[in-house]
Amino acid sequence: MNQKKQTVSLEDLLKVKRAERPPAEFWAEFDRELRAKQLAAIVTPRPWWAPFIRVGARLSNYQLPVGAAAILALSLITLRETQTPAARPATLPDIAMPALAVGATALTQHRAELAPASAAPSAKQIAELAAPVELAATIAPGASSHAVPLEEEHPEPAEPSPSARYIAANLAAAQADDPGLMKQLFGAMVRRTEVREPVRDPLTQVAAPGETRRSRLLATALPAMATTSDVMLEPNDRAARHLTEERLYDSISRIGVKGDRVAIRF
Amino acid sequence: MDAAKTLGKTLVASPDRQQEADSDMAVVRKVQAGDVAAFDQLVMKYRERVYGVVYHLTSNREDAADLTQDAFIKAFQSVNRFQGQSSFFTWLYRIAVNSTLSHLRKSRLRTFFSFEKIDEEDRVSAEVIAALTDATGADRETFARELQEKLNEAMQKLSIKHRTVITLFEIDGLSHQEIAEVMECSVGTVRSRLHYAKQLLQSELQPYIRR
Fold first, then answer.
1. Contact between chains at B151 and A18 (C-beta distance less than 8 A)
2. What is the pLDDT of residues A121-164, one digit of tens each?
3. Residue A33: closest CA among chain B residues belongs to which residue?
4. pTM of the model
5. ipTM
6. How many CB atoms lie within 10 A of CB A191?
7. Which residues contact A153 (CB under 8 A, 6 or more apart)?
8. Considering all CA atoms of chain B, what is the largest pairwise distance in Å, rounded to the nearest integer?
C-alpha cells in the first residue's frame, strides 16, 4: 500500500479536497433551516413578475437575433414617423391667418354690439371698423422681410362683406341716435389706433454697447449738457461721436467738478 | 481494458445512474401529484453531493449551506415544471451550479474562505497525506491544513467555469456528458476546459506532486 502511494498525482490531491466534509451535526441544522425556508416558500406567493424573469432568461440565449429585431423595428417606426405628413410642423400662415381673421371679426362684432342702434359715426370711422383686413395691416405696417405675407395668402376683398355692411349700417344708425356716446366710445379706439407705434425690428431697438457706454461717460463728464434741452444736445452728441473712447476717458480724468467749481488738469 | 472502462465512464452515464434517475423520477411524480413530503427523500439523497459541489466552488461553508438550501427551495418551487427530459439530479445540479455561479459573479470582489475539516476517516486522503508527510517528515495535521489551504487557493485561481468543470469531474465524479448537460455546453467544451484547468492546477500544486 505504501509502495503504491510513493507517487502523488494531481488527481490524488483533488481526492484530498473531496474529503472536506461537514460533520454529522451540521446536517441537523441544515435540515431545520431548509424546512423553515420550504414553509416560507409555500406560504409566500410568488411575485406576479416571476414568469417574466423566466421568459427573459430564455430570451437571453437569443440576445443577438432579439437585439437585431428590436433595432430593425425601431428604425422602421422612426422612418415611418418621419415620413408621415401629420408629423410635419404647421407653417405660420396656416395657423396665424385664420386666427387673425376670426379675431378681427370678433372685434367688429363686439364693437357692433356696443354700438346703439341709432348712432351715426363718421364715414371714416365706419370704414375703418368695418374692414378687418385693415386691422391686420395695422399690426405689422412696414414689416420686415420676416413678416408673414398676409396679402398674398388672403388678398383683400374688393368690397366689404355683407356682415361688414350690416355692422356699418348699425353703427351709422347708432351715430345718428347718440353722436356723443359714439364719439366717446370710438374716440378712445381711434386714438389708440393712431397712437400705436409701428412694429419695428427688435434689433434696431437695441442700443449698441458702445453707445450706452458713451452716453454714460458723457453724463458724468459733461453734467451741464444733461440739463439742457434736446435741441442743445444734438450738436454735443455729434461732437461726442467724434471723440474716441480713449480721449473720453482722458477728459474724465482731467475734468473735475466740485461744488460750483470746475477743475481742468493739463 | 481498464483504460477503456475509465473512458466509457467519463463519456456516458453509467447504468447505475440510469436506475437512479428512474427512481428519482418516480419520487418527482409523487411530489407533482401533491405529496410534498416525498420531496424530503430527494433532499436526503442529494444534499451532501449538492453541498459538496457548491462548497468546492465557493470554498466557504456558510455560503455553501445557504446556496444549497436555495437550490432545493428553487427545485421544490419548480418541480411541477420538471418534465423529465433530463435526470432529476442533472436538473438539480444545474439549479445549484447556476445559483452558485450567479452568487460568485456578484461577490467576486469579496471572497473569503471558511473551510470544512478534512475527514480523517477518508482512506484515500489519509494515504495521500501520509505519502507526502513521510517524504518531508512534517506533522500530519499541520501539513493537512497547509495542503487544504493550497488546494483551495489553487481552485479559486481558476475561472468560475474551469472550477465548475474540475469540481464536477474530479471531485464529484460526473461524466463529460453529464457535465455538459449541467453546464449546458458541448462535451468538447467540457474536455477543453478540463484540460486547461488541470494544467493550471498542475502548475499551482507542483510542490505537492510526486512522480
1. no
2. 555 555 555 554 444 444 444 444 444 444 444 555 567 788 88
3. B69
4. 0.54
5. 0.84
6. 10
7. A93, A97
8. 60
